[in-house]
Amino acid sequence: MNELMSQAIDLMVAGMGFVFVFLIILVFATLLMSKLVLRFGPAEPEPAAPARKSRAKPSAPSPVDPDTAEAIKKAIAQYRSRHKK
């Protein structure tokens, strides 16, 4: 039984050592590839300036039905009366 535990511990240490070495190699390979891409890769294009939108108001407001305008005025008055500060 003692020999079996010794072999199990040896196998565990070997497996963990292999994984550790593999991860270290992976980290260095990733760092190397990132440096190579930054050096030899295409330059990043400059972002285009966004086009400015005109903030001009419409020349003439669309005509509103008088009944609709009156309903809007009443709704605003009712809202303001309920939400006084």
The unreliable regions are none
Estimate percent helicity. 55-70%
Residues in β-strands, percent: under 5%
- Count the DSSP helices: 2
Distance between the amino and carboxyl termini? 83 Å
Shape: elongated
Largest sheet: none
Question: What structural class do helix, strand and pairing data support?
Answer: mainly alpha
Round the Cα radius of gyration to an integer and report it.
37 Å
> H/E series, N to C?
HH
Number of strands: 0
| Average pLDDT figure | 87
Topology:
Layout: H1 2-40, H2 66-82
Explain what the structure shows.
- The structure is a single chain.
- Helices cover 66% and strands 0% of the residues.
- It has 85 residues and is mostly helical.
- It is elongated and about 100 Å long.
- The model has no long low-confidence stretch (mean pLDDT 87).
What attributes characterize this protein structure?
85 residues; 2 helices; elongated; mainly alpha
Quick overview of this protein structure:
It is built from two helices and no strands. The chain has 85 residues and is mainly α.
